């Protein structure tokens, strides 16, 4: 009898107070109704699931608040806040979805062993390099978009080769899809991630990489379709970068270097312009591959693979002097 009364009281307590125990639901901002409709049309997302739509809407509103608050701080205190934010197509994504689809640098033991145990193939340091250099102004290589595939490593590896060929007056577009589909035997994981040095290992062993025209990008992993008669470029090897001086020298000599950064912070997703210096950005953990294509006395100019509408027409800047976002942890360049 006592047990029955206890269970009855417990049920009554949950019935009466259960609603109060639940976390209060944050109301939506009705003044953003039209903005939300425009955003969905622009990004081309839709669902019949009302709960899913509400989940997306709340993330969009949180992104909206973050951007406005940050930009207000930028306007009021530009000496402290050195970069602006803007709305991007990632505003509805969860952190997990964003990292899975928009990053993709997966450091492996093989890559770490190679970097630590290697002997430099050539002297890269150039004491006569200029104080400022920008490959964008010299070589019109369009920024591309990795889409919903964690293939940033393939885009980074390809761009470094394309810039180096451009410095030799050869404007060639190469296939990222070739790396995504075919470099898995060397440790890469297709759209689930990989590293640039393992992509180069494949390219060396394979004796080349196909042109983009003959092996177009699909943003999906598929069977390897490499064809010998459509080779767009070959490389002899690759080497790593250890410090800022070497990085500047390699950019000046070759046009671009492939590096890894931490891209997990929300502020990076909505970056618009300026020198990105979020103190939360890790200088240890890296998960996204980019290219460094220039430098100033205060910053490195970087190229992303999220299309030309992100950032400064697809580019961004990182400050010098503190290994910001882990930029110097893993940098590699091809040798043609």
Automatic annotation (TrEMBL):
It holds the Pfam family Peptidase_C1. GO terms for biological process: proteolysis. It comes from the Eukaryota. This is Cathepsin. One of its GO terms (molecular function) is cysteine-type peptidase activity. Keywords: Disulfide bond, Hydrolase, Protease, Signal, Thiol protease, Zymogen. Residues 129-335 form the Peptidase C1A papain C-terminal domain. Belongs to the peptidase C1 family.
């Amino acid at each position: 009898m006592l047990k029955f009364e206890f269970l009855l009281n417990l049920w009554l307590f949950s019935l009466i107070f259960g609603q109060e125990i639940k976390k209060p639901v944050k109301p939506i901002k009705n003044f953003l109704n039209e903005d939300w409709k425009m955003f969905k049309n622009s990004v081309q997302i839709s669902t019949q699931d009302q709960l899913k739509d509400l989940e997306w809407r709340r993330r969009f509103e949180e992104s909206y608040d973050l951007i406005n608050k940050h930009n207000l701080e930028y306007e009021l205190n530009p000496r402290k806040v050195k970069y602006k934010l803007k709305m991007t197509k990632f505003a509805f994504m969860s952190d997990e979805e964003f990292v899975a689809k928009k990053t993709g640098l997966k450091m492996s033991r093989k890559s770490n062993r190679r970097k630590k145990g290697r002997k430099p193939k050539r002297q890269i340091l150039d004491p006569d390099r200029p104080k400022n250099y920008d490959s964008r102004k010299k070589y019109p290589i369009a920024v591309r978009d990795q889409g919903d595939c964690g293939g940033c490593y393939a885009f980074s590896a390809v761009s470094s080769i394309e810039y180096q060929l451009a410095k030799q007056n050869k404007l060639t577009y190469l296939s990222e899809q070739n790396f995504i589909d075919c470099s898995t035997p060397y440790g890469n994981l297709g759209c689930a991630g990989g590293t640039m040095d393992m992509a180069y290992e494949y390219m060396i062993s394979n004796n080349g990489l196909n042109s983009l025209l003959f092996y177009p990008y699909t943003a999906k992993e598929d069977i390897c379709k490499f064809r010998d008669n459509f080779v767009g470029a070959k490389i002899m090897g690759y080497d790593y970068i250890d410090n800022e001086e070497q990085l500047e020298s390699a950019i000046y000599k070759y046009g671009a270097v492939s590096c890894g950064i931490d891209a997990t912070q929300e502020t990076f997703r909505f970056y618009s312009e300026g020198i990105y210096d979020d103190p939360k950005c890790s200088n240890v953990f890296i998960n996204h591959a980019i290219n460094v294509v220039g430098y100033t006395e205060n910053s490195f100019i970087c190229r992303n693979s999220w299309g030309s509408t992100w950032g400064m027409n697809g580019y961004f800047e990182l400050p010098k002097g503190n290994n910001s976002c882990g930029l110097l942890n893993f940098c590699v360049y091809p040798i043609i």
